[in-house]
Backbone:
């Protein structure tokens, strides 16, 4: 998951992506979803670690 986030962030720095609003918006949406998923995984992991 972290690798996917890094890949999306890298893609977003490319001129062909950041100059195309629609592509950038799609990447940003995907990035936000992945970051939320990762945060959920960490929260779940913390709960399990406390048990």
Residues:
């Amino acid at each position: 998951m972290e690798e996917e986030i890094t890949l999306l962030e890298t893609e977003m720095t490319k001129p062909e992506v950041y100059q195309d609003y629609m592509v950038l918006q799609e990447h940003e949406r995907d990035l936000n979803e992945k970051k939320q998923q990762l945060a959920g995984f960490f929260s779940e992991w913390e709960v399990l670690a406390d048990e």
